[in-house]
Amino acid sequence: PLLWPLGLPTASSPAAMRFRAAIDSLPEHAVVLLACDIDPASRPELEPMLRTTLHQLWSRHARVVVVSVVPGGAALADHVLEDVVAESRAHGRVLERGVDYLDLGYRPGGEAVMTLLARDVQAAFPIDHHGEPSSQAPILRGIEGASGFALLVSLSTGAPGAREWMQQVAT
């Protein structure tokens, strides 16, 4: 265990700085699609990134819609999402499910789900992680497909992952 700071310099990579700049450039209350395609093997690496990303997005007052096309991703996303929501509440900021964030959970189908989401979010994820109709969530008002989101963030290490999101959604 590390008992005292070593005083080693730390520097952010150019990719990390561009990611932070993309978040910082979001308009207030922008709706962001967060694809949490994390499997158990990548959890130690990506869970801290997910927590930090949620904190950074909410510091900009962004609204976050979380999806997963990897079976384990939804459970991890839900766990982290609820933790960060509780942390925010403890610091005086109350985040409302369906308004400030929406956990749409896991949907099997990989790239086919991504393609459907690109056209129609509610067809791809008709119910949220809590069994509520996604069509009732205020956060999705005015958003039909992926082009309605201000930013797509993909946290993944394998396939389907960032590459497939770019191929199916961003083109």
Shape: globular
Q: Give the proportion of residues in helices.
A: 25-40%
Mean pLDDT: 91
The total of helices stands at 6
Structural class designation: alpha/beta
Unreliable sequence segments: none
User: What strand line-up does the widest sheet have?
Assistant: 3-2-1-4
Report the radius of gyration as a whole number of Å: 16 Å
Strand percent estimate: 5-15%
Query: Can you count the beta strands?
Result: 4
Reported for the largest beta sheet, the result is: 4 strands, parallel
Q: Write the element-wise H/E pattern from the N-terminal end onward.
A: HEHEHEHHEH
What is the CA–CA distance across the termini? Answer: 46 Å
Describe the structure.
The protein has 171 residues and is α/β, with parallel strands linked by helices. 40% of the residues lie in helices and 15% in strands. It has 6 helices and 4 strands. It has helices spanning 14-24, 43-59, 71-90, 111-119, 121-124, 162-168; strands at 31-37, 63-68, 101-106, 151-156. The protein has a 4-stranded parallel sheet. Strand 1 (31-37), helix 2 (43-59) and strand 2 form a beta-alpha-beta unit. It starts with 13 loop residues before the first helix and ends with a helix. The relative contact order is 0.17.
